[in-house]
Amino acid sequence: MSSVFRLPAEWEAQAAVLVAWPHAGTDWADRLADVETTYVALVGAIARFETAIVCVADAEVRTRAQALLTAAGIVDNVRFVDIEYDDTWLRDSGPITLARADVTAFKLTDFRFTGWGGKFAASRDDLLVEGLVERGLFANADHKRIDWALEGGAIESDGAGTVLTTWRCLAQRHPEQNRAEMTAILAGGLHARRVLWLDRGYLEGDDTDAHIDTLARFAPNDAIVYQACDDAADSHHAELAAMADELAALRTLDGKPYTLHALPWARPIVDEGRRLAASYANYLIVNGAVLVPAYGDAADARAADIIGKAHPGRTVVPVPCRPLIWQNGSLHCVTMQLPNGVVK
């Protein structure tokens, strides 16, 4: 029915990708110039294929972002929006957009953002969706606030009614609720037919409590791309192997196993004694392309090849993401795609 809403898959047609420019008032302050090189590369990669909507905190941030992008030759398909934010992880504070079946109407689903369970200040981030609505960014869209903590990085959608998530994350956010209660809330809020849960899988240096977008991603043709660990001596080996077994046991709505694509494991990246979460699963799909994290590791090329094969017909574009993982996230975490038709 055309009146039924659903959560589109990321590989469906998009209007734009939303990002927020880092500045001295965010946690990027100590390494701002370093991370800005990644943002220039990221916005440039997005703008090759569709509009990049760049949130800027004030006129000074806008001027700096424009200057850096212009110096890199990135002037087309970039749109700026002035709005305050605590930090730049828009996968988690941005809108989770549901589309009607005929793609003529949308719901901007606005779950409560708590700074990953109260770990960080998030009051301005929690107002981001409302602020973007007030600035007239969207068309044919109703804003729906849901007073329940959920981040966009905690869920994956196949576009056909299946949502994939992790128990570790949502049990931390809602320790008072059981799995059946949370399944009902997710299915209702996201108009999903079913919710699949993973109990295993985590990455050191990840403060999201095992967001699914760092671990396993839906791909077209009933496939799942997932982060594996082939180093038996690594502390992640047993946990990610157990997660791989869980994925192998999942079934499609037709009762068939998913086609699984295992991603290679980057060598440990340590910063001031702290291991960083270098996940290749944290890639971004845009119109006609897939942007893949590059960490300066020997496994970068193999990861890009596997992700490209899982998303056939798309140009594979590596984006340098080593600066991002210093703050415990990567490429997918700092972006939020907006379905075709929802941007005014």
TrEMBL record:
Molecular function GO labels: agmatine deiminase activity; protein-arginine deiminase activity
Domain of life where this protein originates: Bacteria
Keywords, ordered alphabetically: Hydrolase
Segment forming the signal sequence: none
Gene3D superfamilies assigned: L-arginine/glycine Amidinotransferase, Chain A (3.75.10.10)
A single GO BP: putrescine biosynthetic process
InterPro entries, per database record: Peptidyl-Arg-deiminase_porph
Pfam families: PAD_porph
PANTHER family: AGMATINE DEIMINASE-RELATED
Protein name: Agmatine deiminase family protein
